[in-house]
Amino acid sequence: MTGLDLTGRTAIVTGASRGIGLSIAQALATAGANVVLTARTQESADAAADLIVGTAIGVGAHVVDEDAARHCVELTVRQFGSVDILINNAGTNPAYGPTIDQDHARFAKIFDVNLWAPVLWTSLVTRAWMGEHGGAVVNTASIGGLSLEPNIGLYNASKAALIHLTEQLAMELSPKIRVNAVAPGVVRTKLAEALWQEQERELSASTALDRIGEPDDVAAAVAFLASDAASWITGETMVIDGGQRLGDVAPFRGGATVGA
Ligand SMILES: NC(=O)c1ccc[n+]([C@@H]2O[C@H](COP(=O)([O-])OP(=O)(O)OC[C@H]3O[C@@H](n4cnc5c(N)ncnc54)[C@H](OP(=O)(O)O)[C@@H]3O)[C@@H](O)[C@H]2O)c1
């Protein structure tokens, strides 16, 4: 068995009804873990759990709803006997445009879902299980948290804060709990449609690895970070972006604007 074997472990993946979260849930189940998939409604969580090949249940829980989160964690421990892995994946971006044009409602929603929820869920799993028995937490950040972009300033600020929070929690919860993050580039999901749907060809042509990301690209890295293969890694943010953060690759290949 490799360190990627998760047989006997139990994982909660927030925001797992589609996209990156659903792929992460399948990757963890494929490695042998029992998986609890959350989404805002019980129906979509159940539908996603039905898609998983392996042992999986769905739990309806808005990530910011503390009672629902506590219920989910308690149910997980009751049903499977532990909660060894937490993937703080649910994320949102209701704001688009200059940062000074945004309002407090959008700010609060972004920071509640993208930053407070990882604190809340990490706190709950630590108290319920990991604080005593150990575990691994992986947060889904973004390369936007490592760079500057127009129009999604608040979202990127929330992801920058999540990267910082990952380091903070890695220190506070050491040595029993490892806390890491992934920072995906543009991945083919509903959330990021505005970033790839109309310009996939151009984006792929400017990316070192010639394509946008697929949810499985991120899921493989998350499964690694959650597993014993990463047992000496904590506080890290792994960039998974096909080289997008490196900049436009076209000039490096002798063309000024490949694909434009
Ligand atoms: N796609 C990208 O290019 C990209 C790049 C970097 C980072 N990310 C990050 O990756 C993560 C997953 O995003 P995605 O691209 O896979 O998006 P997606 O396809 O839109 O999926 C988002 C998931 O989160 C759930 N969700 C949304 N709000 C929620 C809430 N308040 N409580 C519980 N669940 C909630 C959704 O379920 P329901 O709608 O069923 O509730 C859905 O399962 C996010 O943290 C996002 O910021 C994405």
UniProtKB/TrEMBL annotation:
Single GO MF descriptor: oxidoreductase activity
A Pfam family it matches: adh_short_C2
Swiss-Prot/TrEMBL keywords: Oxidoreductase
Superkingdom as given in the UniProt entry: Bacteria
Spans traversing the lipid bilayer: none
The family this protein is said to belong to: Belongs to the short-chain dehydrogenases/reductases (SDR) family.
Name recorded for this polypeptide: NAD(P)-dependent dehydrogenase (Short-subunit alcohol dehydrogenase family)
